[in-house]
Specification:
Blueprint: H1 9-27, H2 31-53
Length: 57
Amino acid sequence: MNDFNTPKKTTWLVCLVLGIIALIGSLFTIGIITDLAPWIALVGLGLMLAATKLEGL
């Protein structure tokens, strides 16, 4: 029933960087990053979700 996997360190770091970029883009006005901040956050969260469900990601 509980078939979650631990994401690899590289995947976790990529998701962390995407989250930090999205946070900075939400708090400050930085060109296109500000416009794409919600999408960057969704990509990071989606990647983390995929990494916990798929083995080896």
